[in-house]
Amino acid sequence: MKALQTFTLFSLGLFSLGFTGCEKISASADSAKSSAAPLQHLSIGYQKSALNLLVARQQKLFEQQLPNVKVDWKEFPAGPQMLEALAVGAVDFGYVGNTPPIFAQAAGKDIRYVGYEVVTPTSQALVVPSGSPIQSLQDLKGKRIAVQKGSSAHELLGKVLKQAQLSWKDIQPIWLAPAEARAAFDKNSIDAWVIWDPFLSAAKLDAQAQVLIDGTAFPKSYAFYIGNP
Question: How many structural domains are present in the chain?
Answer without folding.
Answer: 2
